[in-house]
Structures are given as structure tokens and as C-alpha cells.
Amino acid sequence: MASDVERILAELEQSEGLEGLQTAILALRDAYRIDHMVYHWVSAAGEQYGCGTYADDWVQRYVSEDYLRIDPVVLGCFQRFHPVDWKRLDWSSKAARVFLKDALAHGLGNQGFSIPIRGPNGQFALFTANHRCDDDTWAAFCEAHRRELILVAHYFNEKALDLEPGRAPQPAQSLSPRELETLTLIAMGYSRAQVAETLAISEHTLRAYIESARFKLGALNTTHAVVRALTRGMIVVEGAERAQGAPLSGAVTPATQAARS
Q1: Quick one: which of 40, 174, 181, 258 could link to 50 by a disulfide (CB 3.0–4.6 Å)?
Q2: Does domain 2-162 fall into CATH 3.40.50.300?
Q3: pLDDT at 133 over 60
Q4: CB-based contacts of 196: which residues, under 8 Å, 6+ apart?
């Protein structure tokens, strides 16, 4: 499956229109063998774009019933910065229970994992994996694919922003050799302690390199910085395991590094 995800993301990078996101999300849904995947973003001006695998009749009903104002997934994720399993959201109100019953009747799964993303100028997006299965099966799926799904979500958001009509390209800033080495090792799945040990620097100095790289890349967090550096070709990582202090070069995608971690 890792090779399928890698291929899908590579094709997404080459797409030149928003329809490329719909093609990619359908392919990813099949690669992960789950019922649904959805990506939806809203700009600060209220402009919206969405792609996904929910049935058209559910999308139309969601809009006609104005479910956006009561959807526990949207409301809960808007208050969070980290991915969340739907079971951790508040479904206690009568309106939320009615909404969930209607969603299940329209083919949605009982399990969900959503990743909130905050972009430039007030943009907010959600990337969701949804499936019908028991709790243990879903917990195993999330444990196995959590990191990879986060990277995929940021790939989608980065591409959607790149294709946003009228968006001016952001000026690129070069990263220092140490910043490049730091992001490369993180992309390979190294922990911060391992990165610091490999580069023979303190964790305090490591944090400074990470924060500097984030600022230059305009990234919201470390994961976002890694994704931006990968998609812009600023860092390239080889699949082979490396000894500490070895040169950093070659090529790997988020799919393969997440599969190894």
C-alpha cells in the first residue's frame, strides 16, 4: 500500500487543477481500503472547496439541513490543532445524535479520524478518514497510519492553496545546510533526540534550527515544514538506513518514511 500512496501523491503534485484532488482522494480511499475520505477548506472570505467520496445525496442533505452549524466534527476540530478520533468529540446533544443517525443512514461509517489544518490568512481545512467497523479495528488502523495521514492531509492542503484562484506565489527563502539536515532527518522518522545526537548538537540548538526553518517556509508546525520542504524539492532523503553522521541525500516520500516509522 505504501507504494500506491507514494504514486498517488506524486500524481497529485503534478496535477494542474482542483479536479486532481478529487482524483487523488478517490485513489487514496481505495488504497487505504476504507469507506470514505474527505478534504474540505474554507478561506477567511468564506470561499469553500471540497472533494471526497461521500454520496451526492448526503452532501446535498448536509447543505439543505444546515448541518454545518451542529456537526460535532466541524465544531470540535475548529477548536483543536491536533488530529482527533471522532469518539473523543461531543455527541451528547440531541441535535448531534440526530445528525449522526442521519449520516449513518446516508452511508457514512461509524468511525472517523479528522485532521484540522490552519493555513495562511485565516484558512481552515479538514481532512477526514471515515469507515464502518468496530472500535478495535479502527484503533489499529489509526495507530498504523496516523503519521502518514497527517502528511497526506498537508499535501492536499498545500496543493489546494497552490491552485487557489488569484493566489500570489510566496517568495522562497533558502534554508541553511543545518536546517536542511534537520528537516531531512525528521522526514526520515528520527525523533528530536535522535536528530540532535546525529548532528552532535543540543536539543535547544535543534529547536532553533526547526523554528528558523518553519519561519522561512511559512509553516504552521514541524510536520508542515517537512511537507513544504519535500514538495518544493528542498530536501531529498534516501530510503536506505544511515549511520550517524553519514551524508544526507537521495529520495523518499512521506508515504515511505511514515511506513518505516
Answers
A1: 40
A2: no
A3: yes
A4: 202, 203, 205, 206
